[in-house]
Task: inverse folding
């Protein structure tokens, strides 16, 4: 009897050993190793690079270095050029920036909880910031700004009557409504990834003339929105001296805070491991890495929103109004962020309303309200408001 049992055990061990050496068994796949670099075949995210460069030039055009501030152009010319850049994808100094339209991409994540009317409302709101900049702020560029009066602050910040810098509102909103939204509510959203696994299993090209699958391309596009402007996109540099645009810049800034040390590696490693999981067709591991990306990239936006809310406290001047303009833009960006596995959406409406509703907008918001808003948002993510400073 004992010999029979031992024989069975030996046989079982042999079978297990044999199976575990097969290339596609769960035992092998569940131990997906994180590659040293984002170095895979058939990686493409050129569209993301184009949008990042477009967004950067638009931000510049809405700031003190703008043609509208330093150049001799009419209000109508300024508005036409700005609208062309935002809505039509034209008018950029880099003639290779063609084929993409920032406005269309705003709030277009396929699995976002925002409704079409809500997405349209945000686009129209951004149109309004741009229009007011061209028609009100630019003509008042030589005026000293004050409560209810558009103009300049210390000759370096250009604000509307409510103290809002258009370039900060637009740029920070784009970080959430374009970059973050496209990543967490589209390319690495649970349903989008799940819907592309069958084609990946069949090694079906995403479209004619390419070798990558829809799943591979989606993951790469998400990666491109974060690391697409790196000098070496296979090996992103973890340093604030190497910040490369928008979400990338703030990821590295948050990483530099001791309270959030390690967040860069969490994001970078999740991208690499998730892409490797796609290569070996381990979709459980892929989804696990997607969860990390949705959580950590959202946290980056939350930390900076809290930071700028607190930096806006005190006497309203060029420095505090600049911070509040950033906080205002980031508050809109937060609508696309995730917390506890769900998109925040309307949870940010009260923050936005508080920043808008005073008689003179950002000039009027109290330190007490800013502190309360910061503490509330930080609590969602399990850190304190002070840790964000």
Result:
């Amino acid at each position: 009897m004992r010999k029979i049992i031992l024989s069975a055990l030996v046989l079982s061990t042999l079978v297990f050993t044999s199976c575990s050496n097969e290339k596609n068994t769960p035992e092998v796949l569940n131990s997906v190793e994180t590659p040293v670099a984002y170095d895979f075949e058939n990686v493409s995210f050129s569209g993301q690079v184009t949008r990042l460069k477009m967004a950067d030039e638009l931000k510049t055009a809405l700031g003190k270095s703008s043609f509208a501030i330093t150049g001799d152009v009419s209000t109508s010319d300024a508005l036409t050029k700005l609208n062309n850049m935002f809505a039509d994808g034209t008018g950029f100094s880099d003639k290779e920036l063609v084929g993409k339209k920032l406005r269309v991409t705003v709030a277009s994540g396929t699995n976002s909880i925002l409704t079409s009317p809500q997405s349209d409302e945000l686009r129209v709101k951004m149109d309004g910031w741009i229009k007011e900049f061209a028609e009100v702020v630019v003509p008042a560029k030589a005026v000293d700004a004050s409560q209810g009066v558009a103009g300049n602050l210390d000759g370096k910040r250009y604000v509307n009557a409510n103290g809002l810098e258009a370039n900060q509102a637009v740029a920070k909103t784009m970080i959430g409504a374009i970059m973050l939204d496209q990543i967490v509510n589209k390319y690495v959203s649970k349903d989008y990834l799940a819907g592309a696994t069958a084609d990946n299993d069949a090694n079906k090209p995403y479209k004619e003339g390419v070798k990558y699958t829809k799943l591979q391309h989606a993951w790469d596009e998400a990666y491109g929105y974060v690391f697409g402007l790196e000098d070496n996109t296979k090996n992103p540099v973890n340093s604030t001296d190497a910040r490369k645009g928008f979400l990338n810049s703030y990821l590295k800034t948050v990483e530099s805070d001791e309270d959030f040390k390690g967040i860069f590696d969490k994001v970078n490693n999740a991208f690499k491991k998730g892409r490797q999981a796609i290569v070996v067709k381990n979709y459980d591991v892929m989804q696990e890495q997607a969860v990390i990306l949705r959580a950590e990239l959202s946290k980056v936006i939350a930390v900076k929103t809290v930071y700028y809310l607190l930096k806006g406290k005190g006497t309203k001047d060029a420095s505090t109004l600049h911070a509040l303009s950033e906080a205002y833009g980031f508050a809109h960006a937060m609508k696309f962020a995730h917390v506890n596995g769900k998109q925040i959406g309307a949870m940010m409406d009260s923050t936005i309303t508080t920043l808008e509703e005073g008689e003179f907008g950002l000039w009027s918001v109290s330190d007490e309200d800013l502190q309360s808003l910061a503490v509330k948002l930080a609590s969602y993510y399990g850190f304190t408001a002070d840790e964000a400073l």
